[in-house]
Amino acid sequence: MKSIAEIEALIKKVSGLDTKRMYLNDFYHTWKESDDELAAVFAVAEALRGLRENNISSKCFDSGLGISVFRDNSTRTRFSFASACNLLGLEVQDLDEKKSQIAHGETVRETANMISFMADVIGIRDDMYIGKGHAYQVAVSNAVQEGFRDGILEQRPTIVNLQCDIDHPTQTMADMMSVINYFGGVDKLKGKKVAMTWAYSPSYGKPLSVPQGVIGLFTRFGMDVTLAHPEGYDVMPEIEQIAAKQAKASGGSYRKVNTMEEAFEGADIVYPKSWAPFAVMQERTDLVSEGRLDELDALEKKCLEHNAKFKNWECTEEMMARTNQGKALYLHCLPADISGVSCKQGEVASTVFDRYLDPLYKQASYKPYVIAAMIFLSKFQNPSAKLEQLLKRGDSRIL
Amino acid sequence: MKSIAEIEALIKKVSGLDTKRMYLNDFYHTWKESDDELAAVFAVAEALRGLRENNISSKCFDSGLGISVFRDNSTRTRFSFASACNLLGLEVQDLDEKKSQIAHGETVRETANMISFMADVIGIRDDMYIGKGHAYQVAVSNAVQEGFRDGILEQRPTIVNLQCDIDHPTQTMADMMSVINYFGGVDKLKGKKVAMTWAYSPSYGKPLSVPQGVIGLFTRFGMDVTLAHPEGYDVMPEIEQIAAKQAKASGGSYRKVNTMEEAFEGADIVYPKSWAPFAVMQERTDLVSEGRLDELDALEKKCLEHNAKFKNWECTEEMMARTNQGKALYLHCLPADISGVSCKQGEVASTVFDRYLDPLYKQASYKPYVIAAMIFLSKFQNPSAKLEQLLKRGDSRIL
Amino acid sequence: MKSIAEIEALIKKVSGLDTKRMYLNDFYHTWKESDDELAAVFAVAEALRGLRENNISSKCFDSGLGISVFRDNSTRTRFSFASACNLLGLEVQDLDEKKSQIAHGETVRETANMISFMADVIGIRDDMYIGKGHAYQVAVSNAVQEGFRDGILEQRPTIVNLQCDIDHPTQTMADMMSVINYFGGVDKLKGKKVAMTWAYSPSYGKPLSVPQGVIGLFTRFGMDVTLAHPEGYDVMPEIEQIAAKQAKASGGSYRKVNTMEEAFEGADIVYPKSWAPFAVMQERTDLVSEGRLDELDALEKKCLEHNAKFKNWECTEEMMARTNQGKALYLHCLPADISGVSCKQGEVASTVFDRYLDPLYKQASYKPYVIAAMIFLSKFQNPSAKLEQLLKRGDSRIL
Question: Where is A17: in which H helix or E strand?
């Protein structure tokens, strides 16, 4: 639990960061944000957590809606978004596209404006189809930006990317906050070895946004980041280029290897996680776009058969023993495919998973605060002054 | 954006209107409300909008539920109701009849009381079946009125008609607010020509409540209102009688013609919109009541084939050219069936629709405030005093 | 409506009760709670009702979530839980297991923690399977208790049992509040005769938690409680033992008879209600656990045929005539199977049901306050001081 002095230090830190580009802006991909902007998300998140721990209200909206649009299932992110909105005083209103009167062919522009008359933020998950998810989020953003400009909307709702086809920033920023706290500060990360590796799962079609998001973020902190996956499970090449460039700039490194063993060797942090081959995701996207839905089953079958060739990509005790003193921090965005628990064989041995339950759950616990910080920074031009105001006001969260 | 002086002028206006019959009462059909009552809805809606534009909180409920019952799909009205409730401090709780333990044969009286222990308002959409929607809303109202009288409910929840089989008052009142603002005041409407016309759509079973609501409301402002539709697409005759009577009383006129062309001739406002033939809606209601569900498909097919005879009822550029200087205000409750966008051929040409995007979205933007005003007027005996109180309190909506 | 003096008397009463074990604890089964603890629920519920009747806010959470998990359909309890949360300032977030990304085999521990980062209370209904419902609630409680202990959760969400396989405490406590108010005080209950009887219903698989909950609670007030059901419709024997023991301790009695007639003879309170035979519920649970879902239909058919042998177990006017002066208080948790209304023949004659509409609806009206009191007592170490604080603060619920 943070002391008031620690909260004040965080606020001071925020005041020294350049966040003006975040105001009334959207948060899509971490690599589009400056170092100051990422540092501001971490600091505001910690400050909001500190306020709550000290039973100090961080409500800054008296009314207003936080709209959620989940085009894929979600528990963690759904509850994290709801928690973040509630913490700030926004009421969540979910756009359930099945219950909605969204006409066939209704433009994104129309729907976006129609739901936004009193919306301060729109959180969107759209991670299923390559080339679609981010594009949809941008389309919604453009629509409400125009609506605001043209006097239709009284406020400009900002977009929080709750996972797209390219990045999953609320996840990876929470991952990074847990890493920073685990190692005792961002300055302790230089030279740490990170293994972002593919892992076997009997399920199909998992998005690429987590591995992409991890290499796109972790390479900014001077760490040695290794990506490992079987042949054919490449991530988007442009993200790899970003990762390589960032690693160089931060004094770390980025490389790709072909086995989990190699990646785990001496690692301080491991993130073994399944994803679909890019080509399969692309093919699925094409089949859906072209209405060839009857071919989807065959694609899934083929993909699962292919997956099954790589069952040895499992985070076992033996694999963990290769890491730095056998004690690497195990990360996962959850839910994991745990061998013998949620499936016969999967991403991780149950003994490994169980040993890391506490850090895993703590990792997840940062997400509500990361989302709240993203909203906060997009809504307040002078975020440190607003945090100061909340602290001074000192309203109790619970009576 | 309104100035504080303009808000004060609106509050003064409200204080001069007789709204006492609205207190603890329901809002069903505009023609049952006096001129003062309608004027009060407009003025309170504008005042609430003014407060929000000035970042002044209009929260007047510290706790309390706004129940929504949607027996038909909805996006715009769902989000408008949620926005209105949130603006006033009520939390929306949706009665999803599919997830509910509503026993077969459970009386409306029972369900209505069971959901209302802490409900201040109940918004209902029930527009699918002729003779049913309004009746259901009245049944709910009677149930909670009796519950309140008998000491079961501590407060009397008031009903807001979010669309029934007869009227769609939150829509048409928002339409009218946009017309008033477009033409620069209610006094500018005298003599304006309005064309409420049927339009072709490849979809089936659209309710009659919008055309009925429009002729039932627009005839009260001294305008010349024309209804146009193909043979067989009549609206309820009693609403036409009301329209005719009101037109006469207000110094305007009401007439019916048989072509879109005739209606559009010299019009200042056009509202081309599809609806189902009354007889078909009646037949559908009968089939459902009698459990003859297997005959519904045949009815739909017959109806769509019949519809297709009137594809020339489309709001094209040529049609718009017939209006006053070719510049009539195009209205639609949205979503529209746009030719070449949401369907092959539909209610409106895409070039016409696109030209009116801004006024169309602005038209929709009044709905949350109209709903909030209806709730406000049903909850406060002295609405101007309460508005004054909100203004004086001056709490910020956003910190 | 309570006066301020009456509210102050209730607060004083609460201050004299030992409620410290309720703090940060769960409410599962009434028989696990001490007399003081039950009295505290009643008194806090009445005090909260008094505050609301006097338009005094009882909001004690500035932010925070109330999570609901409904594994069975619900209207009354869903709205009661939502009302209770809203009254105290918590926002309801429903865990819809169908929309969630809960991995096959995901542990309850994981899901429970993932939804609880900002949860102050979790309300759970899980009443369908013998031996499962309570176990699930305890598993969730243990998970969040460990999460709190291990620093994952900043607060310990408390569990409210919204119906399990064993008890339905929010229902029976509301039932008891209505009985206390009906007879004019808890001291008036000594020696009153209660008939908790099975009744015929054409529906299948109703939980045993209501009859069990009623005999498990009503035997604590010095009343003579009779349970009646056809052969084979036994409730859990351990609950009968608890009932017998409690009856003795409170100076009342507990017995079981084989006919509705015998139970109704001279009764002051009757609670005729259908439930499934224990053995059938057990068999259904086994079939589901073993994946033998294709045998469920046959079980249902067999059970309904068996039920139909006991159609004479109906609360008719003749049956009611047997009660004390023919004027016993008729209780039901609703919805009832009303003969000629919701089914051809069911639990109760429509004339009997209609005569008791007001007390029945009032009975239901206590549930939101009972739930709010349970939450209140689990969240505040010194509940009377907090109630006093709310009264002194005197914020208006409605402006």
Answer: none
Find the residue in C nearest to B96 (Cα). C75
Closest to A275 (Cα-Cα) out of A235, A218, A242: A235
**What is the average per-residue pLDDT within C14-27?**
98
Percentage helix, strand, coil for chain C under 3-state DSSP, each rounded to 5: 50, 15, 35
Q: Which two tokens stand for residue C314?
A: 């109906």
Tell me chain C's radius of gyration from C-alpha atoms: 21
- Contact residues for B386 (Cβ-Cβ < 8 A; gap 6+): B60, B376, B380, C399
Residue of A nearest to B70 (CA): A99
Whole-number average pLDDT of chain B: 95
Whether a cis peptide bond, with omega within 30° of 0, leads into B359 is no
DSSP at C28: -
Strands B269-273 and A338-339, bridge-based pairing: unpaired
Q: CA nearest A385 in B: which residue? A: B399
Confidence band of C391 (pLDDT split at 50, 70, 90)? very high
For the CA atoms of B90, B95, B99, B104, what is the dihedral angle to 10 degrees? Answer: 150
> Cβ A398–C150 below 8 Å, yes or no?
no
Condensed to tens digits (0 to 9), the pLDDT of residues C302-358 reads 888 888 999 999 999 999 999 999 999 999 999 999 999 989 999 999 999 999 999
CA distance C183 to chain A (A): 35
Alpha-carbon gap, residue A74 to B44, rounded angstroms: 40
Of C64, C91, C147, the CB nearest to A397: C64
- pLDDT score at C279: 84
Structural domains present in chain B: 4-166+367-393 (3.40.50.1370), 171-364 (3.40.50.1370)
CB contact A150 to C (< 8 Å): no
Q: How far is CA C372 from CA A14, A384, C121, C369, in A?
A: 39, 37, 11, 5
Q: Which of B362, B368, B399 sits opposite A152 (nearest CB)?
A: B362
Interface B–C counts its CB contacts (< 8 A) at 110
Q: Provide the angle, in degrees to the nearest 10, between the axes of the packed helices A169-183 and A367-379.
A: 110
How many Cα atoms within 13 Å fall on the side-chain side of residue C366?
Answer: 28
Query: What is the rounded CA–CA span in Å between residue B27 and residue B163?
Result: 11
Mark yes or no for CB contact B63/C86 under 8 Å.
yes
Chain C contact for B96, CB < 8 A?
no
Q: Does C115 touch chain A (CB under 8 A)?
A: yes
Q: Are A137 and A162 in contact (CB under 8 A)?
A: no
Rounded to two decimals, the ipTM of the complex is 0.94
Question: Under DSSP, is residue B181 helix (H, G, I), strand (E, B) or coil?
Answer: helix
Lowest mean pLDDT among C37-46, C289-298, C356-365, C371-380: C289-298
Tell which of B55, B71, B79 to mutate to test the A interface (max A CBs under 10 Å). B79
For helices C4-15 and C35-53, the axis angle rounded to 10 degrees is 160
Instruction: Please give the Cα distance from A283 to B104 (Å, whole number).
Output: 47
Contact (CB, 8 A) for A396 and A57: yes
Average pLDDT taken over every residue of chain A: 95
Q: Is A93 on the interface with C (CB under 8 A)?
A: no
Residue B61: both structure tokens together: 């409920």
- Whether B83 and chain A come into contact, CB under 8 Å, resolves to yes
The answer to whether C53 contacts B154, with C-beta atoms less than 8 Å apart, is yes
Q: What is the C-alpha to C-alpha distance for residues B131 and B112, in angstroms, rounded to an integer?
A: 20
B278 pLDDT band, cuts 50/70/90, is confident
- B93 pairs with which residues across the strands? B67
Contacts of C64 in chain A (CB under 8 A): 86, 397-398
3-state DSSP call for residue C77?
A: helix
Assess whether pLDDT exceeds 90 at residue A281: no
CB-based contact, C206 to chain B, within 8 Å: no
